[in-house]
Design goal:
There is one protein chain. 58% of the residues lie in helices and 7% in strands. By secondary structure, the protein is an alpha/beta fold. The protein folds into 3 domains: 65 residues; 183 residues, Ribonuclease H-like superfamily/Ribonuclease H (Nucleotidyltransferase, domain 5); 162 residues, no CATH class. α12 runs parallel beside α14.
């Protein structure tokens, strides 16, 4: 090996100092690398020590978490053996329940009804294992009525931008209830947002048997003494509601009367669609079809029930049904026809085919009305509303009838907007008032067609949810004696009371 080295080195010509320099440089390079590796090893040892300390802390945290979990498991096990506890709710003076429980019952009752409210509480409390006395439904009824009277008689600020929505509601007999809802023009929701019950307040609920022009004028005048004469009164087509508002001119010269858009639209449909002899034929067929198929294998194709009142405000459902059935008549393999023969389908519903074109025209008219109503509900009326509505309805002029309906509705809006000043925006639909009548009938349940009762006092409670604070305030302003006085003053002898008296008299005589 050495001989081999000595043999090979002779081939190099470099002097010894050059070789020494190379070797010294190589040694210095290796020394630097060794120092770097030593520093890297030291750094990694420090990192390792930090990570070990972090791991130790995490292990301690994990041990603490496991200890807390065991404690929580023990606590949960103990709680599961005990029923939940209702929030602290001290009794109101002269009451057996607190304001929170009363507010809960009022909100449930206004949503699902009086008796269902009590049943719902019973089911929930039994499920939770809570031993809590539940009020009787008659007690909840009284609470709801007190809240309603408090809403009706709540002090109202006098302002120059009040808008009244007035209409009558009747059930059977000669008695009608005049309801006036109010809102401030300055507090209307922004364009694109329809009115909700939270936007309005109950200004007047007054039953009566005579509502002539003079009676309405007196009611308007008394209400104007509370709120100030309104900027606008929004009513349907009833003459007494419109002409009675003339009395407001003595208090304010710029008060205006606006007519409800939805009622006018229904009148337009009645004129254009309702006066069509073929439409009368369709209604006749629908009546017979309903009776013929509602208890057969075609029951799922039964037409909607007939609306005895405001038929042309509810025409959309009938036309939608007719369009749906025509589609299935044209598609014999649709799923809806799997359990019936073609002959059976044609026998009971085939008559619709000869009215296909008419239904398309009527549906076009209804589409114009529906889109217009949505526009008015969301945008209200303002200077330029008619032109804006015309632009929206332009694509819907698919036939002469639809175009005629559009022209009538646009002209109605144009007439209304001419009464407004530039920059003013007012509602033109009483749909929120109509829906409040629906809420009240839902509250009445099966008694909604039996004449007004003292529950009419609860009408004002339907618009906003109760809270514990509002219950305390309302009950402070309206004790039971005030509620009874309101009922005596406004309802006197109800139809239900007269009916009970008739049965009592008969029973005593028998």
């Amino acid at each position: 090996m050495a001989g081999s080295w000595f043999t090979q080195v002779r081939r190099f010509k470099s002097p010894v100092r050059t070789v020494a320099a190379v070797l010294l440089r190589s040694r210095e390079t290796q020394a630097n690398r060794a120092r770097e590796k030593t520093a890297e090893i030291a750094r990694l040892r420090r990192v390792n020590e930090q990570q070990q300390r972090h791991i130790t802390r995490l292990e301690q945290d994990l041990a603490d978490a496991r200890y807390r979990k065991r404690q929580l498991d023990v606590e949960n096990s103990r709680l599961r053996q005990q029923p939940p506890v209702l929030p602290d709710d001290p009794r109101l003076p002269h009451h057996e329940f607190g304001a929170k429980m009363i507010a809960l019952c009022v909100n449930l009752a206004r949503t699902i009804g009086l008796r269902p409210c009590v049943r719902c509480l019973k089911i929930v409390f039994e499920w939770l294992g809570i031993e809590q006395r539940i009020p009787d439904w008659t007690t909840v009824r009284t609470w709801l009525m007190r809240v309603g009277v408090a809403a009706i008689e709540e002090p109202v600020e006098q302002a120059d931008d009040w808008i009244w929505m007035a209409d009558h509601s009747n059930q059977i007999g000669p008695e009608k209830a005049l309801v006036v809802l109010g809102l401030r023009a300055s507090q209307m929701p922004p364009p694109g947002t329809p009115l909700t019950h939270a936007n309005v307040r109950t200004l007047l609920v007054q039953p009566g048997t005579n509502w002539k022009r003079e009676d309405m004028a007196d009611a308007y005048d008394q209400l104007a003494a509370r709120t100030g004469a309104p900027r606008a009164v929004l009513v349907d087509g009833a003459i007494e509601l419109r002409e009675g508002a003339d009395v407001l001119k003595t208090r304010r010269t710029d008060s205006i009367v606006l007519r409800d858009f939805k009622h006018d639209a229904a009148n337009v449909l009645k004129k254009i669609v309702g006066d069509d002899d073929r439409f009368a034929d369709v209604l006749s067929h629908i009546g017979r079809t309903r009776s013929a198929i509602q208890q057969t294998e075609l029951a799922h194709l039964t037409p909607p029930g007939k609306k005895p009142k405001a038929r042309f405000m509810n025409l959309a459902a009938t036309l939608k049904w007719a369009t749906m059935v025509l589609w299935h008549l044209s598609h014999p393999y649709s799923n809806a026809r799997r359990e019936m023969t073609t002959a059976r389908m044609n026998e009971k519903l085939g008559w619709l085919r000869k009215y296909r074109d008419d239904i398309e025209h009527w549906l076009a008219c209804q589409s114009v009305v529906s889109v217009s109503l949505t526009f008015i509900n969301e945008q209200a009326v303002f200077r330029g509303a008619a032109d804006a509505l015309a632009a929206v309805l332009h694509p819907l002029r698919t036939c002469d009838s639809a175009g005629h309906v559009a022209d009538r509705l646009i002209e109605f809006v144009r007439t209304a907007e001419q009464q407004l000043v530039p920059g003013e925006r007012l509602p033109l639909s009483t749909e929120i008032l109509e829906s409040s009548f629906g809420l009240f009938k839902q509250l009445e349940g099966q008694h909604s067609k039996g004449g007004f009762t003292s529950l009419l006092a609860a009408f004002g409670a339907l618009f906003k949810p109760a809270t514990a604070d509002s219950i305390r305030n309302d009950f402070a302003r309206v004790p039971v004696s005030t509620l009874r006085a309101w009922v005596r003053t406004n309802l006197k002898t109800t139809l239900a009371a007269k009916r009970n008296a008739a049965y009592t008299e008969f029973a005593k005589a028998a």
